[in-house]
Each structure stands twice: as C-alpha cells, then as structure tokens.
C-alpha cells in the first residue's frame, strides 16, 4: 500500500465527507470521527476485535453511517522513532482493509506515541474517572486524540480562507 502524506489527505477526500480516526489495538479498535471541516474530532465507539471480516464489516458500516471519506490510523511508533511489530500489525490492518475488505477511501498513518497515556492522565486528573469507567472510554478517547492531532496538523498547513 502506497503511503499517503497527512497533508495530501484533504485533497483526496470528497467534499462534505468526514475523517475516521482509528486507534487499533490487539483486543479493541477505538473509533472517532471528525466534523466536515476537519477541525474537531469526537469519540464514537470501541470495537471489540473478533475476526477480521467482522471488524472490517463494522468499520464499513460506521463509514457509511458517518459519511466517511478518509481514515487516519494511529501508528504506534517506538519512542526512538523506530517501528516495531505493533507498527507492522497496524500497517497490515490498513493493507487488509484495502486489499481484502475493499476499502476505497484513503488511509493515512499518524504517529500515536503517548496518545493512550495522555488520554488516561486526562481521564484520571481532569475527569476524575474510576478505573472501571476509564476502561469503557479509553480506546475511543485515544482515537479522538489521534484524529485531533492529525486535524490540527492539517489546519496548520492549510491557509485560512
């Protein structure tokens, strides 16, 4: 799969479409969506991973329901900037969504270093959530954090109208 630069994404997404943010883990996939102006990310849900076919179908349904035109997928880069087995797993997921599940929308990767821990610190400190409640929202909140980082980068690159 040819990698797309995050700054090229707005030109590849049809007008009035949204972006889907994904935080893929081994057991779950956190899901978030953007607004149509690519300014705000909102958490949507956490998908409990089962078989690829089922996961892909659920993502397709979300894409159709939320009018999605592109995907920003969190890439778990190591702290030193290198890519390990988790990055390969995420790249394989993206490739399989395109090749096997037939996703035709662009998929870009966004460095998600520290996203889950940043969200967890917020949920503990600012939101004062219990461990049980944090577990229910951490993945979709991390997906929103990842997507918001990408949206902020896109907005900084695009001149104001």
TrEMBL record:
SUPFAM superfamilies on file: Ribonuclease H-like
Coiled coil: none
Keyword terms, alphabetized: Cytoplasm, Hydrolase, Nuclease, Ribosome biogenesis
E.C. number: 3.1.-.-
Function: Could be a nuclease involved in processing of the 5'-end of pre-16S rRNA.
Similarity annotation: Belongs to the YqgF HJR family.
Location(s), subcellular: Cytoplasm
MF terms (GO), sorted A to Z: hydrolase activity, acting on ester bonds; nuclease activity
GO biological process: rRNA 5'-end processing
UniProt xrefs under InterPro entries: RNaseH-like_sf (IPR012337), YqgF (IPR005227), YqgF/RNaseH-like_dom (IPR006641), YqgF/RNaseH-like_dom_sf (IPR037027)
Protein name stated in the entry: Putative pre-16S rRNA nuclease
Residues in YqgF/RNase H-like domain copies: 17-119
């Amino acid at each position: 799969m040819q990698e797309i630069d995050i700054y090229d994404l707005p030109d590849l997404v049809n007008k009035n479409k949204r972006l889907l943010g994904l935080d893929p883990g081994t057991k779950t996939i956190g899901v978030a969506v953007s607004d149509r102006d690519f300014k705000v990310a909102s958490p949507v849900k956490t998908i409990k991973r089962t078989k690829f076919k089922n996961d892909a179908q659920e993502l397709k349904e979300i894409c159709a329901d939320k009018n999605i035109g592109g995907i920003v997928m969190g890439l778990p880069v190591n702290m030193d900037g290198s890519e390990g087995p988790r990055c390969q797993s995420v790249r394989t997921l993206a490739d399989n969504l395109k090749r096997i599940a037939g996703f035709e929308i662009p998929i870009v990767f966004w460095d998600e270093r520290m996203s889950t821990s940043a969200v967890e610190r917020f949920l503990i400190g600012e939101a004062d959530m219990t461990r049980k409640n944090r577990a229910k929202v951490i993945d979709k909140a991390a997906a929103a954090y990842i997507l918001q980082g990408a949206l902020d980068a896109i907005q900084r690159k695009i001149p104001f109208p």
